Amino acid sequence: MNPEGRSGELGQVSDRLIHDWDGDWASLFPRPDPSPARILMIDWKPPTPDRDSGSFRMQMILEILLDAGHTVDFIADRPAEDSRYSRALAEQGIELVIGRQAALEHLRTRGGSYRIAWISRPELAESYLSMVRAFAVAARVIYDTVDLHWIRFMRGAAFDSEPDRLRSLAEHYRRIELSNAIGADLTIAITEEEKHALLEEDPGLVVDVVPNVHRICTMVAPASSRRDLFFIGGFQHTPNVDAVLFFVQNILPLVHAQQSDIRFNIVGSDMPDSIHALASPLVNPVGYVPDVASWFENSRVFVSPLRHGAGMKGKIGQSLSYGLPVVTTHVGAEGMGLVDGVDALIADDPTAFANAVLRLYTDDVLWHRVSAAGQDLIAQRYSKDAVSPILMSLLA
Prior knowledge:
It is a single chain. By secondary structure, the protein is α/β, with parallel strands linked by helices. The protein has helices at residues 3-20, 53-67, 83-91, 100-110, 122-135, 149-156, 163-183, 192-201, 238-256, 273-276, 293-298, 314-321, 330-333, 350-362, 364-382, 384-395, and strands at 38-43, 71-76, 95-98, 116-120, 140-144, 186-189, 207-209, 229-232, 264-267, 283-287, 301-304, 326-328, 345-346.
């Protein structure tokens, strides 16, 4: 086609568009008509609370919102590992939208109905925040960090074979996370420490804290009926891989030197070959378990020898909620208000860590005292009853 013919065709299309448009720009976008109780949640996938701590926290937040009478819709960037996770949302009355293109269409037609838009994790906020701003124009936008990735990667550099790569990744995420926080109306940190880290970077940010949330187990089996050590964690999370390898190589031999029959059970999704390779008569890499209650109810001591990471450690709160005493490091205890010797035992040195494990393993009185104190801490700070008023005040 010659240039003149192509130009004429475009002109005809343009004339049709102008003829069809009534001149009202608002007709191209959903009219803001926000329901006072309608909330949009956006995350990387439908919550998989049996696979990762962030999903468990999201599931508990959803329960709080529904209990308070809110209508909740959920955008997931991708499907979960199994369709049962989508069905679980449907059973709660939560409408699920999967994928960026479906999200765009959903927001284009219904974005004006949201009073709150809650976006979790830095990559999701980077991808969806502008879309939410464009179409959910009446919504207050909340960015939930889940944990500060830049801190996690920076700490991990000291334990990685390519430290410069981790430092570069940390800086990349620092820029993303601060940009998200600036673009949101409110940023959620998971601990007071991470709130302060954000405000040190930019004192003008609006930041509040919503911690992990846990259910309290009302029946706790006595120490005398329990045995063995236990760790749980999603192994797509590098600090968990490092923690288990460090424990088996540097701490467990010290435990076995004094009590040779103690078994170490390792549970978690996405377990790599490096963890499976630890298998022995006294090291049991179990892998993914759909229902982990029995492991918390029958184990004698929960160990979490984390050397790096960030945020609040869901595995530790989960263990405390079951009344299973914890031995962890200062990194593991971060942000929870744990006191060494009161509601957990805390040690960084391998010898001190092994001694703490043996104390809880052999002293029933200490075990029961720490078990009760740990559950009290969860009830007072990290139960649904404790967190619900905090969350509701932020949404008001």
